[in-house]
Amino acid sequence: MTETHHLALIGARYPQLALGTLMAKRGFRVLVVDQNVGQAQTPGEDGNQYAFRRRPAPLFGLDSNGLLRRFLDEIGIGRMLVRRSYPPNPVSYQVVLPRHRINIYPQRDATMEELSREFPGSVDSFRTLYDELDGQSDRWYEGYADLPSLERGWGSLARIWNRGKAVWQFRQAGSTLNSFNGMEQETAFLHLQHHFLGGYPFQTQTKPTVLSAALMHSIGSRGTFREPVGTTSITSLMADRLQEYGGEILHGAKAATVRNGPGNLVTIILDGGREIQTACLAITSDIAGFVEGLSQRAGKPHADDSGLRVPVRFFLGINASIVPVGMEDNLFYMRDDDGGPLGLKALYLSMGPPGSEGLHDEGRRPLTVTALVDRAILKGITGEIIAAAEKDILQALDAVIPFLDRGLNFLGSDLTADVLEAAPRPLGGWITSWIPALVGRSRVLTGKRGRVAVMEVPPWELGLEGETLTALAAAGALRKVLEKVK
């Protein structure tokens, strides 16, 4: 017997579950087809918590003003996560430059005191710049305050108005950077932040996008959060809520083929021959490429790798006794050399608490070093380059953490011969052309043949908030079709 649904989704990842749960709450019959046997569960009490990770550009926010918090409240799990999350860090992150170490606090006045100590001749220029970034960040979040408006898409006057404001902000942002022309260390400070925060190549004539400015400000004003268990807990809660709203999840079922028909329906044929019919199908582009009948809808990959960077991580264990007093566990570091075999001049250090899982010796702490590597460089990587890069990282850390030879274990890295296949989504380059008013729609390919919508998952910098925008934009595109067949 063929089953018919309003909306079917292939894959039980965050974008699909977010879209499916929202649509199920709106009263549509939703089915999620997932080839995994079931949701992975994390043992112990920590399995029920979701706390946001330390990462270079967290737009994550469980405060009431955050887009992600409003969306999670909308589907009924926001408060559950807030109760169990870690509090924000007192220091959002620390920046280490040659001859400078600067704490970036959520409180702007405290950050200005740090900058006035390290860069006394430039503090007024920094104050002007950060005032501009404050305003841009506030306007960025303002533009996404109304979830129903985001679902309605581009027909609302508010979206059109916000798009116009965002374009105008391009002109304002560039002028605030001119005062740093010729200031080597100040420029390095800004460059390091923007290198990780979705930013632009720092040049006098290059203006930051409004999105970059909001990212850079956001990590300072909102703090960062730990995420010990990945996205397992949040997707598990979302899957439960999807089913409470009447949606279904078909575990252990792999979609082999998708074809149009009969009529205006889409037919999904599973391994084994079972058929499912749906008025609309939604899928992410990476999964679409592996399903017969969908690969042509997945969109073309970027042909030009220039400017695209891939996050590569190095995993270490460090003796807590050699961690310098005052070193924060969320740290950006600009090296004073050529960056070694992979050109890794900028590093992001994230240090976990003592006794973390995987480090059985008491008093040891996990240290993850993240570097953004040009995708073109990774294409020619060899075993010799990998070994040299790992050795180079250890030498580079000696400038931040002394006495490493007395308590550092190298546990591994993301670098492999097939690193490009294993790496996270590339970032940089084309993201610099984004403006806030375009983010939602630009990541959804709304052209539908047989009522199929392919969601293009946003790059690494935007995390779950970017994927939430993708789900909302897809909901707006699909809802107009589904309301006619409901």
Number of DSSP-assigned strands: 15
| Shape by Cα distribution | globular
**What's the number of helices?**
16
Q: How much helicity do the residues have?
A: 25-40%
Let me know the largest β-sheet: 8 strands, mixed
Mean pLDDT: 76
Q: What radius of gyration results from the CA coordinates?
A: 23 Å
Distance between the termini: 21 Å
Structural class: alpha/beta
Ranges where pLDDT stays below 50 over 5 or more residues in a row are: 41-59
> How much β-strand is present in the residues?
15-25%
Summarize this structure as a short list of keywords or feature phrases.
alpha/beta, eight-stranded mixed sheet, 15 strands, 486 residues
Detail the topology: elements first, then pairings:
Blueprint: E1 3-10, H1 14-25, E2 30-34, H2 67-74, H3 78-84, E3 93-97, E4 100-104, H4 108-118, H5 123-142, H6 147-152, H7 157-175, H8 184-196, H9 210-222, H10 232-244, E5 248-251, E6 255-260, E7 266-270, E8 275-284, H11 285-288, E9 309-319, E10 330-334, E11 346-351, E12 364-374, H12 375-379, H13 383-397, E13 408-413, H14 419-422, H15 439-442, E14 444-445, E15 452-455, H16 463-485
Parallel strand pairs: 1-2, 1-8, 2-5, 3-10, 8-15
Antiparallel strand pairs: 3-4, 6-7, 7-8, 9-12, 9-13, 10-11, 11-12, 14-15
